[in-house]
């Protein structure tokens, strides 16, 4: 299977490595020239429970590629989705599957501007991944991938099933989920709790879990997310999200969530895709979410401060 992984960050690198383990023909696509050079020169290094391995995917900017791919995996930041699809649209054929595993609730409407519904799939993952250096990633602890085609039908079954089989052969727990919309909301609730608080405190997941007040706020954020979901008719199971958070405190203890990694490296955080998206629904539905609103304000203040420091060269 010929697959382009769009976005060579922590998660894109992890998925590229797993698909290479499965025997797929993988191209890792990014716009960061320093990252592409590191991948080209030193390969993709993945550290996990089995040790450290080096992979050699093809690496390129999208505009350097020609020909159609069987599947595109969208693993850029949510706010780069439109730009990434514009750059990659020439890689799409009539049957190319496009799977988004991006954070948030709003990637599918963006992708629909470029891809027919019959060729779209949406999903989420709970696998952790940390960037150690350009082209070097660590992933320790279990996880899962949940996905589903946007539309049922035989036209999508072939490439989607081939991708599911490839992820499984690569060692990932991959589940075709008929209730993927609910799973996406639960992932947003999970991320809003852990990503937000780790970014604000500078703690990894385990350190946050060892703080009684941190655990209390995390669970309050999950409860507010569940109320917001219920207001729009999504049957989010708060207890399932709480269990996932509690498990992450132990299994992913050393993991730095993506928002904390972004903050440390001077990148824009995905606030709009997580707490921002939930609070947008809350305002439209008249649902109060005071803890989430306070956390969202603090995140945006930190983001503005870091942006000002970066502009000033500090």
Per-chain topology:
Elements: E1 2-6, H1 10-21, E2 25-29, H2 33-42, E3 44-48, E4 51-55, E5 58-60, E6 71-74, H3 81-88, E7 97-100, H4 107-111, E8 120-125, E9 130-133, E10 136-138, E11 145-149, H5 154-169, E12 174-176, H6 180-201, H7 205-209, H8 212-231, H9 238-251, H10 258-264, H11 275-285, H12 290-311
Parallel strand pairs: 1-2, 1-6, 2-5, 3-10, 6-7, 7-8, 11-12
Antiparallel strand pairs: 3-4, 8-11, 9-10
Helix pairs in contact: 6-8, 6-9, 6-10, 6-12, 8-9, 8-11
Structural class: alpha/beta
Number of helices: 12
Mean pLDDT score, rounded?
A: 94
Order of helices and strands: EHEHEEEEHEHEEEEHEHHHHHHH
Number of domains: 2
Q: What is the CATH class name of the largest domain?
A: Alpha Beta
The 3D shape can be described as globular
Calculate the terminal CA-CA distance, rounded to whole Å.
45 Å
Biggest sheet character: 8 strands, mixed
Within CATH, the superfamily of the largest domain carries the name NAD(P)-binding Rossmann-like Domain
Could you explain how this protein is built, in words?
The protein is an alpha/beta fold and 314 residues long. The chain has two domains: 2-178, NAD(P)-binding Rossmann-like Domain (Rossmann fold, 3-Layer(aba) Sandwich), CATH 3.40.50; 181-311, N-(1-d-carboxylethyl)-l-norvaline Dehydrogenase, domain 2 (Orthogonal Bundle). The protein is 48% helix and 17% strand. Strand 1 (2-6), helix 1 and strand 2 form a beta-alpha-beta unit. The protein is globular and about 50 Å long.
């Amino acid at each position: 299977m010929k697959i382009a992984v769009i976005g060579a960050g922590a998660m894109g690198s992890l998925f590229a490595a797993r698909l290479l383990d499965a025997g797929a023909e993988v191209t890792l696509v990014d716009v960061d020239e320093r990252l592409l050079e590191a991948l080209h020169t030193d390969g993709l290094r993945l550290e996990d429970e089995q040790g450290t391995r080096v992979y050699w995917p093809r690496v390129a900017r999208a505009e350097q590629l020609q020909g159609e791919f069987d599947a595109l995996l969208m693993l850029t930041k949510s706010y780069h989705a439109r730009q990434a699809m514009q750059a990659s649209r020439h890689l799409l054929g009539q049957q190319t599957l496009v799977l988004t595993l991006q954070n948030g609730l709003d990637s599918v409407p963006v992708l629909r501007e470029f891809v027919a519904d019959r060729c779209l799939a949406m999903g989420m993952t709970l696998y952790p991944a940390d960037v150690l250096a350009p082209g070097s990633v660590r992933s320790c602890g279990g996880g899962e991938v949940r996905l589903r085609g946007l539309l049922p039908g035989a036209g999508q079954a072939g490439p989607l099933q081939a991708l599911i089989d490839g992820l499984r052969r690569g060692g990932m727990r991959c589940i075709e989920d008929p209730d993927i919309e609910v799973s996406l909301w639960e992932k947003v609730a999970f991320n809003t709790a852990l990503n937000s608080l780790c970014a604000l405190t500078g703690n990894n997941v385990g350190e946050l879990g060892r703080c009684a007040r941190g655990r209390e706020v995390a669970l309050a954020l999950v409860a507010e997310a569940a109320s917001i979901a219920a207001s729009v008719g999504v049957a989010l199971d708060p207890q399932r999200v709480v269990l996932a958070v509690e498990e992450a405190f132990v299994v992913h203890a050393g993991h730095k969530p993506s928002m904390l990694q972004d903050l440390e490296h001077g990148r824009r955080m995905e606030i709009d895709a997580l707490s921002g998206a939930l609070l947008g629904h809350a305002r439209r539905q008249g649902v109060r979410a005071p803890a989430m609103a306070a956390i969202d304000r603090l995140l945006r203040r930190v983001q503005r401060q870091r942006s000002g420091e970066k502009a000033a060269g500090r």
